């Protein structure tokens, strides 16, 4: 990865399906200084802890003796989709109210896809970089270092 330049007052969104960090660069491109503006965390237990329904069954239309199982609902994944939409809406609010000049989005591939689908055009127009990495468990100083490392 080449060295990423983070403009002054640019926002860096670092998220996954459970946590979202909104960071702002108080420094400049040469010496970034990321500060936490907002943090969202979601309580999302594993699917087996959220639901106990047995998978549904479907009968064939012409021969009722044939039945097939239906894939069980992944409640955990559904909650991750919902959380990504909430994070995208929060980012839209920040972009509009704070007049964000640039945005960098850092998320694992699945979450990044959810965010791309949920981002408003105003948010998409400010994205200068996307990185498919999970950095949510790292401290802000490490995130800054990892993003700007040569």
Break the fold down into its secondary structure elements and pairings.
Blueprint: E1 11-15, E2 19-25, E3 34-41, H1 47-50, E4 57-59, E5 67-69, H2 75-98, E6 103-106, H3 109-118, H4 121-124, E7 127-131, H5 140-148
Parallel strand pairs: 1-6, 6-7
Antiparallel strand pairs: 1-2, 2-3, 4-5
Helix pairs in contact: 2-3
Question: What does it look like?
Answer:
- This protein has 150 residues and is α/β, with parallel strands linked by helices.
- The protein has one domain (11-45, 74-148): Nucleotidyltransferase, domain 5 (2-Layer Sandwich).
- Helix content is 34%, strand content 23%.
- It contains five helices and seven strands.
- The chain has helices at 47-50, 75-98, 109-118, 121-124, 140-148; strands at residues 11-15, 19-25, 34-41, 57-59, 67-69, 103-106, 127-131.
- The protein has a five-stranded mixed sheet, sandwiched between helices. A two-stranded antiparallel ribbon has the order 4-5.
- A hairpin with a 7-residue loop joins strand 4 (57-59) and strand 5.
- Helix 2 (75-98) crosses helix 3 (109-118).
- The longest helix is centred in the middle third of the chain and has 24 residues, at 75-98.
- The radius of gyration is 20 Å and the shape is elongated.
- It starts with 10 loop residues before the first strand and ends with a helix.
- The mean pLDDT is 84.
């Amino acid at each position: 990865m080449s060295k990423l330049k983070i403009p002054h007052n640019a926002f860096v969104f670092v998220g996954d399906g459970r946590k979202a960090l909104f960071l702002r660069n108080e420094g400049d491109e040469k010496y970034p200084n990321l500060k936490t503006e907002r943090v969202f965390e979601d309580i999302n237990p594993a699917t087996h802890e959220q639901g106990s329904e047995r998978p549904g069954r479907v009968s064939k239309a012409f021969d009722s003796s044939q039945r097939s199982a239906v894939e069980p609902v992944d409640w955990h994944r559904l909650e991750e989709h919902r959380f990504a939409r909430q994070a995208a809406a929060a980012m839209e609010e920040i972009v509009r109210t704070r007049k964000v000049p640039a945005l960098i989005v850092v998320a694992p591939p699945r979450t990044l896809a959810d965010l791309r689908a949920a981002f408003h055009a105003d948010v998409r127009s400010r994205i200068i970089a996307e990185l498919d990495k999970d950095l949510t468990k790292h401290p802000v100083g490490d995130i800054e270092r990892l993003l700007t490392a040569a």
